[in-house]
Amino acid sequence: MDKFKTVVNIANKQTNLGFGVVALLTVGGEQIFSSVVFRCPCNELNFLYGMVFLLVPALALLLLGYILNKKTWKLSTGLCQHRAKLCHWRRLCATGMVFAQISTTALVAPTSWIAVALLNGNYYECAMTGTNVSAYSRHLCGDKSSLVQCQRELHSFPCTSGTSVLQADRESVLLTLRAQSQILGWLLIASIMLSNLLLTCAARCTSPISYLQLKFWRVYTHEESSMIDSYTTKHAKELAERNLKCFFNQTPPEKIITPPNKDWEKISSLYKFNTKEQYYSTIHRYVETCQETDNGMMRMASVKSSEPADDNPAVLSFVDDGRVAL
């Protein structure tokens, strides 16, 4: 399990590579389920059994994608305590956009499962031989010599035994079902790739920043996300050691500064980009704009620009994207 976590965390250093690993793991899981677990019952349960194996794992992967995404919890934490703010249409639109970005990431695994399962054809083959639609059954059996017998025993076709229909007729029906399943699988893959291309092109065309700045921002976000884990671990360890020493040695505590709740709330919110104040994260904005309480001076923002503001470009969805962290 530790090796698996290491591989996934390394892969998620780059978004595209992370998506590739998720899709690869999903394909491998589908192949195992199809060859080891799945056994078509060849009776009236065919349709239900096939659809459960086709759709329920995809639903489970979708929910898992939401659970493992840090952005989900950034969006939902404290939401009930700030319900009044959600009534504002701009905040509501921003929340909807963030949820759409989370859903796009979470849909990678379930769509991969469904696409590979359709290309494999086993689940679709089992499900469609259990349909009770007479028109579809007549379509599958076609002009077979044993048309009535074919319709009556259609549910037993996925099994090698238990049918009196000619072997050639049975194979013809199964080939038709396999072809339909694979056509649907390729159409699903093509539609996903086309929609992804169109959305990416639209986002890049409306981006207010250049490609190199976008690349820099991506590197900065990754470095900050990696370092914040080590910093919080180090600070928490120091605080825990101090408290334990004070408890067991009965000595007064040393002074260790920990940010107050309000500051934690500021850096935990989802970041919204503004071209006039080009901060690259909530922590960057907090550091550049915070007041220094010792001398009462305001720290000047070093990245401010005189250009007009343009909020939340869609191309910058990777900011605070909450990659999978196991």
Structural overview:
By secondary structure, the protein is mostly helical. The protein is 65% helix and 0% strand. It is elongated and about 90 Å long. The termini are close together. Residues 1-17 and 292-326 have low confidence and may be disordered.
- Portion of residues in beta strands equals under 5%
Cα-to-Cα separation, first versus last residue: 10 Å
Number of helices: 14
Would you report the number of β strands?
0
Biggest sheet statistics: none
Secondary structure class reads mainly alpha
* Mean of residue pLDDT values: 77
**Element order, helices and strands?**
HHHHHHHHHHHHHH
Spatial shape? elongated
Helix content: 55-70%
Low-confidence stretches: 1-17, 292-326
- Radius of gyration, in Å, reads 28 Å
Notable features of this structure?
326 residues; mainly alpha; 65% helix; disordered N terminus
Short description:
This protein has 326 residues and is mainly alpha-helical.
Secondary-structure blueprint:
Layout: H1 2-11, H2 15-37, H3 46-67, H4 70-76, H5 83-86, H6 89-106, H7 108-120, H8 122-128, H9 134-141, H10 147-152, H11 167-205, H12 211-249, H13 261-268, H14 282-289
Helix pairs in contact: 1-2, 2-7, 3-6, 3-7, 3-8, 7-11, 8-11, 13-14
